[in-house]
């Protein structure tokens, strides 16, 4: 995709590349948007300082209307949270019946949901992964059904999944949710959905539009919106579900003025979102070409990171990359020889793949 001067004037320019140093390492570890905030968001933040002494009641109402338009829904279907972490916590706690709930999830996925369950003394039940670290929906469904005979069940699915970067079968997932299984509530974490290229992917938000009330879809401004440091997420569900979850957040109206201003600006900035995705696609292409050249296996990537099979333990590789001032993803057991690499700018990925080639020459990988 080409971007002309008019677009470049309204969105963030790609950061100028400089080789990483010990004081400023290359961060290929947190799945952030390396493009940074749009110029419009930066301007909105500056302007928001004039409201810093005021509570953001009006701004919360305004962004919910803007967000509803973006999502194709109504404000009553949405709940703002301090990052998606609060949405995960509140959703789990809202559907926890103390002493009578179990938490069911795949063994290789984002850990926040299970961490919240454990802090709330909810037993967690894991399901082993399928081939190529895929989420085994059939096994999840079987386990959930068994547990639901005597317990309330919370099913947590990250789609696209982290750290694998793969998606589940939409039809199988939708078919399961549509059966409205007894005593079962679904939490669908779609933090990375905006990066997906596979046309078979559909957001579970479609089921909410159809009237299903046994699920919540969680979203974040931390990824494609480039606002990881500003902490804003939201839950999307039927109004009754939103009301239940809202009982477990602090105050939706007590958001940060600067964060609300930036998010409102970026929701309106289609050019920035398009450029962010296009840059991510280009960075992925650079990395995958080198992985193919070096015959390093990897899973199909539908996010802003790639999960690759080093065929050797992760720690020595990560330590050597750190010596080169490049930080890669943390360990994700049981995939102990796999490495999650976040996608930086195209220039950053060119630098990274050169280091990969050097590592191959040295026999490190």
Summed up:
With 365 residues, the protein is α/β, with parallel strands linked by helices. The protein has helices at 5-8, 39-48, 57-71, 83-94, 112-119, 137-148, 170-178, 205-209, 239-246, 257-267, 270-293, 314-323, 346-361, and strands at residues 26-27, 78-81, 101-106, 124-127, 152-158, 184-189, 215-220, 233-236, 305-309, 326-327, 338-342.
How is the biggest beta sheet arranged? Answer: 7 strands, mixed
Distance between the termini: 34 Å
How many structural domains in the coordinates?
2
Spans of 5+ residues with little confidence (pLDDT < 50)? Answer: 1-9
| CATH architectural designation of the largest domain | 3-Layer(aba) Sandwich
Instruction: Report the count of strand segments.
Output: 11
Spatial ordering of strands, largest sheet: 2-8-7-6-5-3-4
The outline comes out as globular
How many H/I helical runs?
Answer: 13
Task: Report the portion of residues in β strands.
Answer: 5-15%
